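Board notes (copied after class):
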Amino acid sequence: MKIPAVLRTTGASRRCFPAWRRWLRCEWLANAAFSRVDLGAVLGTLGLIVLVVLPALASSRAPDGRMVCLNNLKRIMTASNLYAADNSDSLPHTSWGIDMRGPGNWAYATADKGRLPGEWLFPYSLAGRIDNSPQLPWRRIGQLWPYLRDASPYECPDDLVRQDPNSRLYIDRPVKVTSYSMNGAIISYGTLPGVQTHPLASFSPDALLIWDNNEMQPFYFNDAASYPRLDSVSGRHGRRQVARQETTTPFGGAFNAGRADGGAEYMTRKIFAELTKWPPDQRNRVWCDPTSPTGSR
């Protein structure tokens, strides 16, 4: 039988029979072949992509410290609203004393009253110590614990000093149970008698009643309350380098604050500086003592 000419193979085409598949196979394979240089370039590019993309994906999955803190303050203020609903509209006490003395308050109790068998009758300062465990039982019998039932809302994950317990600034804190400070306006800055607090209804819904305490000043951790002063708030949620230099950068950084309505918000220290000007001429969101025309002491 005679093979048609179109199907006859030559020496060049025997490797890719039939001849009409020369372009489809032989020439395509010749053109598509990878050299070692090409293969190395492809693998190098893939490796670079992995190095760039994977850390980005990991960081996107990690919780944002600022948002966690914001949620903490929402939970604390929601708990404060629930406490007020159960206590004739009176807000929890802010604390107002040195080294865990004074009235029991939102963050910790100051007297055992038989609730902590085996513990000291009263809590004590932990200034000069790293371990905060002696104070933790007192947090669990604080006024807001029954509503929170969780330790995490008390501490900001971006607390710069809390991230390094060996820091001198952390060691010098007398109170080591919270990263936050409540506005002393709730108790007229310590002038209300006994354990009295102002009712929730006496504050405007946008009044700022709790904020990130200034971790650069251990003295402000002598209790869990403060005056609304610029140096009483942290800058940790702004640029990190500014927050660490807060004492030399007066208006740097930003912080989170909880509102009377149970919400929370992000605020720069520059805006807070405008609200805390002294002396205030009228009540505002931070100078908000209900008994004072100017909201101040």
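Comment from the instructor: Residues 6-14, 58-62, 240-248 have pLDDT under 50 and may be disordered. The chain is about 30% helix and 5% strand.
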